[in-house]
Design brief:
Keywords (chain B): ATP-binding, Nucleotide-binding, Transferase, Ubl conjugation pathway
EC number (chain B): 2.3.2.23
Strand content of chain A: under 5%
Number of helices of chain A: 19
GO molecular function (chain B): ATP binding; ubiquitin conjugating enzyme activity
Helix content of chain A: 55-70%
CATH topology of the largest domain in chain A: Herpes Virus-1
Protein name (chain B): Ubiquitin-conjugating enzyme E2 G1
Number of domains of chain A: 4
CATH architecture of chain B: Roll
Distance between the termini of chain A: 42 Å
Strand content of chain B: 5-15%
Number of strands of chain A: 7
Structural class of chain B: alpha+beta
Number of domains of chain B: 1
Number of strands of chain B: 4
Distance between the termini of chain B: 41 Å
CATH topology of chain B: Ubiquitin Conjugating Enzyme
Structural class of chain A: mainly alpha
CATH class of the largest domain in chain A: Alpha Beta
Largest sheet of chain B: 4 strands, antiparallel
CATH architecture of the largest domain in chain A: 2-Layer Sandwich
Helix content of chain B: 25-40%
Largest sheet of chain A: 3 strands, antiparallel
Strand order of the largest sheet of chain B: 1-2-3-4
Radius of gyration of chain B: 16 Å
Radius of gyration of chain A: 29 Å
CATH class of chain B: Alpha Beta
Shape of chain B: globular
Catalytic activity (chain B): S-ubiquitinyl-[E1 ubiquitin-activating enzyme]-L-cysteine + [E2 ubiquitin-conjugating enzyme]-L-cysteine = [E1 ubiquitin-activating enzyme]-L-cysteine + S-ubiquitinyl-[E2 ubiquitin-conjugating enzyme]-L-cysteine
Order of helices and strands of chain B: HEEEEHHH
Oligomer: heterodimer
CATH superfamily of the largest domain in chain A: Zinc/RING finger domain, C3HC4 (zinc finger)
Shape of chain A: extended
Chain lengths: ~500, ~170
């Protein structure tokens, strides 16, 4: 799957934050890809956990001893992740763009307007944000439904509305897939793999299908050699090309069943160079480089291969080999880029070390002043709050606003402020007893302290008990609750 | 979108994101160059109610290529007198020790590096290290000896000196 850095969830979608983080692998912080569950019920990307287990045989989250054999697929999590990503993208899009009001769906337009008018009332704007989304997505679904029904040439093109969404969901999974004719002519082995995903996602993003494209329903069958689904018309052609590849024959021989069997790990110390090369060739990997490089390359291949074994549509050996080599190339490029920051040897004197440190501090003084400014910025914002009369009352109001929902943007700012304040209090508490210091900055730090420290201190402990993370959780839970009731209200 | 590239930015950036939204008390961190995700600079304010209170400590984090499977290295650029920071400034705490080997023999596995750690969790450990030095695995033997034998005398004086110096050099 192609991964790029996703935009943050907009503040009005903060209620999805928990779902979002639950669907991420705790190792790579990306959406979980081929999820595997441990005995202790923790989920990781297959590749991430397999790589980690080659370091240490324990669960990275709870330290329970485990081995690779204990890993089990968690397919429902995979599906949830894919579906959530699609939904997330749609929601974000719907959140930023003004909704494309199509003349085809007048009903949805009418629906759209009521909540937005409600949104003008300041107290219910979060609700209205949710409404907008709720309303837009059904209209979007109708559109997809249209596309879908046209594509599949099913008998019920006129049906629309929420009742149909269930059917839509299932239609996504079925193997009858629309395919462009040009596409299928270039149906090489590699293309097949991506086709599934590509058509899957493109269907979701498609807003207006070009009528000129010749779309036909295609019945897919599974290739007995590589277990990839291929359109019926091209299966013979595919089989021919599939069987001419040695690698495929091997896979036919080694795993007649559906699942590809994971490769065993090798004890590289016992392998001769010749044997090692032979193994690499078997995996279609390059045999260039030192022994260590070869070993590393083979290890990487095994990790990727075994991770792919957990997939429903595993990548071919050729693709995996390509990926391994691309990774290796990138690693070596990175290695060239990384310069050692400061190299010390044991015979450096303390003066020399100090000189080098001081040099570094001077070179990077602007970076550090930026960081200092960041910490002070938090102090500054808390000072402003301290000056205002009834600061603690305001904070309560602030916390209420999580649930009672102010407009999206102020809410975000508020979260930062509340947390920044804690930082401010602590650092300022630190500064309060500072030995007098000659620098200007310290003067301003301690002056800010006297402003805040007094009125805020009774509340300090109460607040620091809750970690910021917990606080975010509880607040987003509040968000979860309100829109739901709102939705019910709308229906009645 | 190959693995190492994807892993590092995703992880460091998301941990950085968390960091911006939920700042841990008393530190901030950022990239040295936007293009190089493997090198970070951090600023730690000495935690309250400790000897290091009010100190402005600068440090450097270097991530290995196979992060997050292996831990980053942390180095204080500001002089700091602490049993677990050696005289070069290298930080020696169990959370930054690699998961595979157990060369010191007495660390519990849960205290060692795990790929689920982030810049934020490392900073929490470092701040608690400042609050509560670990005398069992000294990186600075002299400091550890002073800490054990004369915590409120010589050790305290030396720490106070480095705290003051850190404030003087904060904006040099």
């Amino acid at each position: 799957m192609a991964h790029h850095i996703e935009a943050d969830l907009p503040a009005s979608l903060a209620c999805l934050k928990n779902v979002d983080s639950l669907l991420r692998c705790p190792i790579c912080f990306d959406y979980v890809n081929i999820s595997m569950m441990t005995k202790c019920s923790h989920n990781f990307c297959s590749l991430c956990i397999r790589k980690f287990l080659s370091y240490k045989l324990q669960c990275p989250v709870c330290n329970t001893p485990m081995t690779e054999q204990d890993l089990r697929n968690n397919r429902i999590l995979d599906e949830l992740t894919v579906n959530f990503q699609v939904a997330r993208q749609q929601l974000i899009k719907a959140n930023f763009d003004s909704p494309p009001i199509s003349p085809k769906t007048p009903a949805s337009v009418a629906k759209c307007q009521t909540p937005r008018e409600k949104g003008q009332k300041p107290t219910s704007s979060i609700l209205s944000h949710f409404f907008q989304k709720k309303v837009k997505s059904p209209s979007g679904r109708e559109a997809h439904q249209d596309i879908q029904s046209r594509e599949l040439q099913t008998a019920q093109p006129g049906n629309s509305g929420n009742v149909q969404t269930g059917q839509l969901r299932t239609s996504v999974v079925i193997k009858e897939e629309p395919m462009d004719v040009e596409d299928s002519s270039t149906l090489t082995f590699g293309a097949v793999k991506h086709e599934d995903m590509a058509s899957y996602s493109s269907r979701f993003h498609m807003t207006n299908p070009s009528p000129s494209k010749d779309v036909k329903p295609v019945i897919k069958v599974e290739c007995p050699v590589c277990s990839v689904s291929v359109s019926q018309h091209f299966i013979n052609k595919h089989l021919d090309s599939c069987l001419t590849r040695g690698e495929k024959k091997e896979s036919l021989r080694s795993s007649l069943g559906k699942a590809r069997r994971p490769m065993a790990k090798l004890v590289y110390n016992l392998l001769s160079m010749q044997e090692l090369r032979r193994r690499l060739k078997e995996c279609q990997l390059s045999v260039q480089g030192s022994r260590d490089q070869l070993v590393r390359r083979h290890q990487d291949f095994i990790h990727l291969f075994n991770a792919e074994c957990d997939s429903l549509n595993p990548k071919s050996v050729e693709e995996i080999a390509k990926e391994v080599e691309a990774n290796e190339k990138m690693r070596s490029q990175l290695q060239g880029k990384i310069k050692p920051v400061m190299v010390f040897s044991k015979n450096h004197s303390e003066e020399e070390i100090e000189a080098m440190h001081s040099n570094y501090r001077k070179q990077h003084s602007s970076d550090f002043s930026r960081l200092i400014a960041q910490v002070r910025g938090r102090l500054g914002s808390s000072r402003q709050r301290g000056d205002a009369p009834g600061g603690s009352e305001r904070r309560e109001a602030v916390q209420e606003s999580h649930s009672s929902a102010e407009a999206a943007e102020p809410k975000n700012g508020v979260v930062v402020k509340v947390e920044a304040e804690e930082v401010g209090e602590n650092t300022s508490a630190a500064g309060f007893e500072l030995p007098s210091s000659p620098t200007l900055s310290d003067v301003s730090i301690s002056s800010s302290i006297s402003d805040i420290f007094g009125p805020e201190s009774p509340r300090k402990f109460e607040d620091t008990e809750k970690s910021p993370v917990q606080k975010r959780r509880s607040s987003s839970r509040g968000d979860d609750g309100t829109p739901l009731t709102g939705k019910r209200r709308r229906k009645t | 979108f190959t693995q190492p590239q994807r892993m590092l930015p995703q992880k460091t950036q998301s941990s950085f994101g968390i960091l911006n939204k939920n700042p841990v008390e008393g530190f901030s961190a950022g990239l040295i160059e936007d293009s190089d995700l493997y090198r970070w600079e951090v600023l730690i304010i000495g935690p309250p109610d400790t000897l290091y209170e009010g100190g402005v400590f600068k440090a450097h984090l270097t991530f290995p290529k196979d992060y997050p499977l292996r831990p980053p290295k942390m180095k204080f650029i500001t002089d700091i007198w602490h049993p677990n920071v050696d005289k070069n400034g290298d930080v020696c705490i169990s959370i930054l020790h690699e998961p595979g080997e157990d060369k010191y023999g007495y660390e519990k596995p849960e205290e060692r590096w795990l790929p689920i750690h982030t810049v934020e969790t490392i900073m929490i450990s470092v701040i608690s290290m400042l609050a509560d030095p670990n005398g069992d695995s000294p990186a600075n033997v002299d400091a550890a000896k002073e800490w054990r034998e004369d915590r409120h005398g010589a050790f305290k004086r030396k720490v106070a000196r480095c705290v003051r110096k850190s404030q003087e050099t904060a904006f040099e």
